[in-house]
Amino acid sequence: MLKPFALILSALLLAMTSYVQASTTEAAEAAALAWLEAIDQGEYEQAWEKSSPLLKTPLSPTMLQRVVTLARNDLGSVESRRRIRMSQYTSMPGAPRNDYKEFAFKTQFTNNQRVVEVVTPHLEEGTWRVSGYYVQ
Length: 136
Fold this sequence. Notes:
4-stranded antiparallel β-sheet, 136 residues, Nuclear Transport Factor 2, Chain: A, 4 strands, 32% strand, alpha+beta, DUF4019 domain-containing protein, DUF4019
């Protein structure tokens, strides 16, 4: 009698773990996409406010605008964006141990159809905040 109960309990725990991981990934991706949307709209102050102190400390909103403008120089406006990869880490170079998710998005801009943007949010006091961004 204990064996079937243990199997059912194990299956339930596994299902709950998968659900929590999926909802955590969805929340992290939503934070990354909201940050990118602010950048796309030229709302650098808003993007900066949504950022982690890991990004805010070295960059003012004006500096963030300059860095992003240089990275996206001559790309044009965003036409589409889709996630192509998600990686999960517990540490990143030069950053404290935490829960980090790195999302790679294939982004089509008007002047370049083959751009990959990488956004890294991390969990900070229960909220996902972007701490890194670069264009490949």
